Automatic annotation (TrEMBL):
UniProt keyword terms in alphabetical order: Hydrolase
The species this protein was found in: Nesterenkonia sphaerica
Entry similarity comment: Belongs to the Nudix hydrolase family.
Domain Nudix hydrolase, residue spans: 1-138
Cofactor(s) in the UniProt record: Mg(2+)
Gene Ontology molecular functions: hydrolase activity
Name of the protein in question: NUDIX domain-containing protein
Length: 141
């Protein structure tokens, strides 16, 4: 299970980190990620957003839950479970920035972070969760 945040600014730009998995793939994504055992999903998304963007956020509302099944042959090598299918429930929240400053994560799963307008997002190499989250939040071009 994982938790993600849709974060927009007053110009309707959306915050997206750039995900990369060595030897597997990359793309722009929604800030967020895995929930630690026993961690509340809303706390997880606050932690993940800070790690990936440098921003402190407050969760405003639950936008929805998305179900993703990753076939075993598509699992990342680092998972150690290649060949075993994974079902992932992705909890998507709307969140608002309360502090911090834009900072690129070091030694993590992302290597960049930036703000994009809806039309810019349409042209990005992005993971499917971006479009799912945009639909949930009504942030489309």
């Amino acid at each position: 299970m994982s938790a993600y945040a849709v974060i927009t600014d007053s110009d309707n730009r959306m915050l997206l980190p750039h995900w990369m998995e060595q030897g597997f793939g990359s793309g722009w994504t929604v800030p967020g990620g895995g929930i630690d055992p026993g961690e509340d999903p809303a706390d997880a998304v606050v932690r993940e957003v800070f790690e990936e963007s440098g921003y402190q956020v407050e969760v405003a509302e639950l936008l929805g839950i998305d179900n993703l099944v990753i076939p075993g042959e598509r699992r990342t090598p680092s998972s150690g479970r290649r060949g075993i299918a994974l079902q992932n429930l992705r909890i998507v929240y709307r969140a608002h920035i309360t502090g911090g400053e834009l900072t690129v994560e070091t030694d993590g799963s992302t290597n960049d972070v930036a703000w994009f307008t809806p039309s810019e997002i349409d042209r990005l190499d992005r993971v499917s969760l971006v479009d799912t989250a945009r639909r949930m939040a009504g942030v489309i071009s």
